[in-house]
Amino acid sequence: MTTTAFPTTTLPAGAGDFFALTKPRVMRSVVFTALCGMLAAPVQLPFTLAFTAILAIALAAGSAGALNQWYESDIDALMKRTAKRPLPAGKMERETALQFGVALGVFSVLLMGLAIGLIAAGLLAVSILFYVLVYTVGLKRRTPQNIVIGGAAGAFPPLIGWVAATGSLSTLPLLMFAIIFLWTPPHSWALALLIRDDYAKGGVPMLPVVASAATTRWQMLFYAVLMAAAAVAPWPLGLAGATYGLIATLTSLVFVGLTAWVVVQRAETTPAMKAERVLFVYSIGYILAIFATLAFDRLTA
């Protein structure tokens, strides 16, 4: 790990610092997609059990976020985007972050196991370990394909939500997994192109850092096309209705079109990268719309 000078004085950590350690923005996305997976399932859990399952998933996401920040505190200190996080800002000891992350993770898995069952709890444990050990420790600092393989970590929540409700897997939750998995590269690389210098400063080999902008953009388009196919697939497979199919088709075409705009744009400097900014913002709304529409479609079928 890179040697980084941290503040010599550690300030007392407050509740806000522990909350920031859980990466609340990521947690909200995890909870949303997990809830959509649960609502799309053919079996609906009683409210108390559904709430408990979602709480366990949220705590697991917080655990992964805390352990990620514990391990990457040296990188975070070097990057402008992350320098104000609790650890590089000197608001918390690394050991405290580690203990907090482990405690959250263990509790979340136990809660899921006791309230829902061993299959959902096991899948939840795998998702935490995948994000921390495979993505954070194994891939992030070693390969420009880190976000491609590591994208599976963010794709677990709808699977877990579905399994919590049904106790098993089927084609639709696997397609939901595939949508997020294939969505992650164009979404993440759009941001990485915008903050390429920050990643380079932190020594993170994101694709735009180690390859040309053109190479990155073409790979973004490749994954966007595959993602669009996965997003539309529930309709012709009879797993979703025409309303979902129409919305998925139209929004996916816009996504692919925006990614194509990114490809034809030749700007290499960050301020000129309007297409990347538009795609990044759109991609967030896109994934929310796709999952919300799918859940609504299944609930009203």
Automatic annotation (TrEMBL):
Transmembrane among keywords: yes
Membrane topology designation: Multi-pass membrane protein
Entry's EC annotation: 2.5.1.141
Compartments, record wording: Cell membrane
PROSITE patterns: UBIA
Segments traversing the membrane: 26-43, 102-135, 147-165, 171-195, 216-237, 243-264, 276-296
Keyword annotations: Cell membrane, Heme biosynthesis, Membrane, Transferase, Transmembrane, Transmembrane helix
InterPro entries documented for this protein: Protohaem_IX_farnesylTrfase, UbiA_prenyltransferase, UbiA_prenylTrfase_CS, UbiA_sf
Major place of residence: membrane
Catalytic activity: heme b + (2E,6E)-farnesyl diphosphate + H2O = Fe(II)-heme o + diphosphate
Coiled-coil portions: none
Pathway assigned in UniProt: Porphyrin-containing compound metabolism; heme O biosynthesis; heme O from protoheme: step 1/1
Protein purpose: Converts heme B (protoheme IX) to heme O by substitution of the vinyl group on carbon 2 of heme B porphyrin ring with a hydroxyethyl farnesyl side group.
Family recorded in the similarity comment: Belongs to the UbiA prenyltransferase family. Protoheme IX farnesyltransferase subfamily.
Other comment: Carbon 2 of the heme B porphyrin ring is defined according to the Fischer nomenclature.
Protein name: Protoheme IX farnesyltransferase
Protein species of origin: Sphingomonas psychrolutea
Classification of source organism: Bacteria, Pseudomonadati, Pseudomonadota, Alphaproteobacteria, Sphingomonadales
Protein encoded by which gene: ctaB
